[in-house]
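Q&A FORM
Asked by: J.P.
Topic: structure of Cytochrome c oxidase subunit 2

PROVIDED:
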Amino acid sequence: MATWSNFNLQNSASPLMEQIIFFHDHTLIILIMITILVGYLMINLFFNKYINRFLLDGQMIELIWTIIPTITLIFIALPSLRLLYLLDELNNPLITLKSIGHQWYWSYEYSDFNDVSFDSYMINYDKSNINNFRLLDVDNRIILPMNNQIRIMVTATDVIHSWTVPSLGVKIDANPGRLNQTNLFINRPGIFFGQCSEICGANHSFMPIMIESISIKNFINWINNYS
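REPLIED BY: S.T.
REPLY: Here is the structure written out as tokens.
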């Protein structure tokens, strides 16, 4: 989860989020190089005294400052396209979780199991409870097995919501009358937080997402004991 003074991206808990962070760093390095180059040229322009009264054209420099930005954009576009296709790739999911957005809470259905569904509401913040997270804790957590491919189906019943979990690299819109699909692969145990990222009304800030990642053995026990 995000903490105070953390200006970086959250630590990844999935291979897709790792790839997003790599792409972010790759693009940021290119932007820094462009900024330094342009800044140097502008500062140099202010302080030199070069004058050429007979300069009418410069076809070579025009060619150079057209080709170099094109090559730079290719270096950004190719990893970006690769990542877009990776985010849409879904291979033999173990389970399917259906997430339904409401004003202002989430409902979840485990489609592969009978009668495993629940609503997830934010719970009141209790200062005396050190394990309570303000605006992030819910009464019913999503329980998912780690190291397994998981399909997420997202929709809404009233207005547009957005199911977003930053540490897992997932952000998908929940549109009424439409079923969107994405995938998860959680590679470590833990609790991961998210929130609705689409302004959906008065209580938009109060419909958090809480995912608990556990081993497959414990997940099977949870399903068997669910009532």
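FOLLOW-UP: The chain has a mean pLDDT of 90.
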